[in-house]
Structures are given as C-alpha cells and as structure tokens.
Amino acid sequence: MQGVWENYWYKSIDARQYAALRIAFGGLSAIYLLGLLPYVETQFSGSGWLSDIQQITIQNGGSWSLFFIQTGGHAAMMAYAVVTVGIVSAFLLMLGWHSQVTACITWLVWVSLWNRNPLLLDGDDAVLKVMCFYLMLSPCGNCWSVDGWSNKKPQHVAVWPLRLIQFQVALIYFVSGWVKFYSDEWLDGSIMQYVLIHPHYSRWDGWAIIDKPLITGILAGLAEFIRWWELLFPLLLINAYTRKLSILIGILFHVGLLLTMNLRWFAVIMLSLYPALMSNSCFLRVEEKLLKYFPLAGKAQ
Questions:
Q1: Is the dihedral of CA 160, 249, 289, 22 positive or negative?
Q2: Residue 62 or 290, more confident
Q3: Which of 75, 93, 128, 234 lies deepest, with the highest CB count within 10 Å?
Q4: Which of the two residues, 231 and 42, has the higher pLDDT score?
Q5: Are 272 and 127 in contact (CB under 8 A)?
C-alpha cells in the first residue's frame, strides 16, 4: 500500500506536461491583465470609486493587496505599475524565464487584484490565480523554456504538483455540478432556454428554436446530462476509459460554450486545464510532431 501511495505522489513524469500548462496560463494571464489596463485607475487604484481601502480590508476578513500600499497622490501610478509588472511577469512565465519566480509574481498580482476589487473579477480569474500558484510549486520551466535552453534541467520530475492541479480541476467540476442540484432552473432543464435567449450571454437569437417541443426536450436532457457529468467528474477520472470519455465530453462542452455563449475567457481557460488530465506521453508526441516543422525548437529543451 505504501508503494502505491509513493508511486501516486512521487513517481517521475516528463516535464513537458508542466511546460504546456505554463505556456497556456502564462499567456492567458498576460492577455487578461492587458485587458484590465483601461480599468486600472477606476477599479483598482486608491483614486477610483473603491477608494476606501480600510473598509475593503475589513469586509474581506483582513485581506492584503499590493494596491493597498498608501502612495498619496500617486495612487493611479502605483496601480498601473502593479498591473504592468503582472503583465511582464506573466509573459516571462509563458517564455519560461525564471519560471517559478515569475509564476510567484504573477500570482501575487492576481491575489492583489482580487482583494482590491472582488466585485469585478469572476470564476475565470480565480482559475488563473490558482493555476499561477500551482505553477509556482512545479518544475514548469524545465522544458520548452528559456530556463531549459540556458541551463541543463532534468526532463523527468516529480508528479505531486500535477496531482494538486488534477485535484483542483476535479473539485471545480464537482462543486459546479453539486450546486446545480439546488437550482430549480437546472432541475427542470429550463436553464438552457434562458441562456439561449439572454441578450448578454447568448451569441445568437434563441427565440427561433425554444418554442419547439423537440428542442426544449433536448435542452432539458442536456441540462441533466451536464449536471451529472460534472458531479461525477472526479470518479470518471479514476478509470482510463471513462477518463478519456470524460475529457472528450469536457472539450465538446467548452467548445459549445465558446460557440454559443459570451462568457469572456471562461471556456478557453477551462480548456487550458485539460493538459493536466491528459496522458503524460501525449506531450512527447506533440513535441516530435512540432520538431518536424520547427527543427530549431529542439534547442529550447
């Protein structure tokens, strides 16, 4: 039993899996933080509409933020500096330059943003924040990185940081499925009709189809399927065959969200978690295929 436990947490895996997650979440964080630049002064600085820092700290249970630093008349400049540092560190994380350090800095900026204005950010921001934390703990710069190119780093590393990421992904789906069992709209299946006609969330006009009995029945069945799939997601990962099926369902589900709903970057961010669930050998095959088209990429190992 002890051998099984040690193998599960401490066996050696290929570093390319961490590299794929680093590139995805470093790049997404950089793009996302760039999108926040127009709102920095009004939403995150001491000169913005949430200027009462002390009150925010009390409401968040004494939370901290780099944006809470008192700078007097330079509040806006300080806020822009923090976000700019986050953008640069996220970009360097994607490139794999001092990966664990840049992951830590990016995580600090995400935590600071979240605590400074919890009203603006959402679940997709939370995933970016927590993934930067896990990347900080992982050897994500050993492969496909500046670190890997400039320093000889081991290509086989411990699996335990990946296990933490896998548990996090499973928890996200389980909780999402669990809360749907306490929603009347999810229980009767009407939620799918609501989102298809919602003027903000729907990408197209759903009024043309929701009055058809066949379509409403299919949508209700789809809502129930999604509830159970999310709730059982952790169990489906245990078996190799159900894991592959569940991953395929998840990819189709998030691609469907991307095509039908306006959920900012949520679908893309969730799809970027899937490398953590895939077979470790997949990434070696991906690299072999890439090297056929980009031979110089091999030097970055």
A1: negative
A2: 290
A3: 93
A4: 231
A5: no
> Is the model more confident about 234 or about 116?
234
Of 151, 31, 55, 63, residue with least CA distance to 100: 151
Q: Domain-by-domain residue ranges, the chain?
A: 13-156, 159-263
100-156 pLDDT, tens digit per residue, is: 999 999 999 999 999 888 888 888 899 999 999 999 999 999 999 999 888 888 889
Mean pLDDT of 37-59: 78
Task: Tell me the three-class secondary structure of the chain, residue by residue.
Answer: CHHHHHHHHHCEEECHHHHHHHHHHHHHHHHHHHHHHHHHHHHHCCCCCCCCHHHHHHHCCCCCCHHHCCCHHHHHHHHHHHHHHHHHHHHHHHHCCCHHHHHHHHHHHHHHHHHHCCCCCCHHHHHHHHHHHHHHHCCCCCCCCHHHHHCCCCCEEECHHHHHHHHHHHHHHHHHHHHHCCCHHHHCCCHHHHHHHCCCCECCCCHHHHCCHHHHHHHHHHHHHHHHHHHCHHHHCCCHHHHHHHHHHHHHHHHHHHHHECCCCHHHHHHCCHHHCCCCHHHHHHHHHHHHHCHHHHHHC
Of residues 86 and 191, the one with the higher pLDDT is 86
The pTM score is 0.89
